[in-house]
Amino acid sequence: MILYLGLLDTEKILVSFAAFIILLTVGFALRRMFLYSGNIYFNRLDSSNRLRFFLYQFIFPFLAGTFAIVLLKQPRMSGMDIAILATMSLLFLPLLLMGRMTNDLYYDEDPRKIRFFWWWLLAALILVPAFRIILEEGIKI
What we know:
The protein is built from 6 helices and 2 strands. The protein has helices at about 1-5, 10-35, 50-75, 80-85, 90-100, 120-135; strands spanning about 45, 105.
């Protein structure tokens, strides 16, 4: 990171472009693994439920997590923090673009039941602000 500060503008653009390409490449490489994780909820992943799967498994948690991070960092949220959070969307871009072109996936025959564990949400809502309050001053050794 410190070496990045000493680079000229052209070199910074090249490093940023390389990071952009790497994020997109990782997104394309992980696309199939993202789709295979659908066997947690579905017996098959076809065109009728693929968009719902993308939204509920990846997009909504990403947006909720980003919103939570923005709320926790207020009022000291900088433009750099927002740019970093926005670059994570580059991992999901190949999933959204190429996921529709993937063949239907059929998993096992056992029926799946989707459950939501409210106590995990409650624990997160209690622990995240607690850590924020406790660690705001830092750990004194």
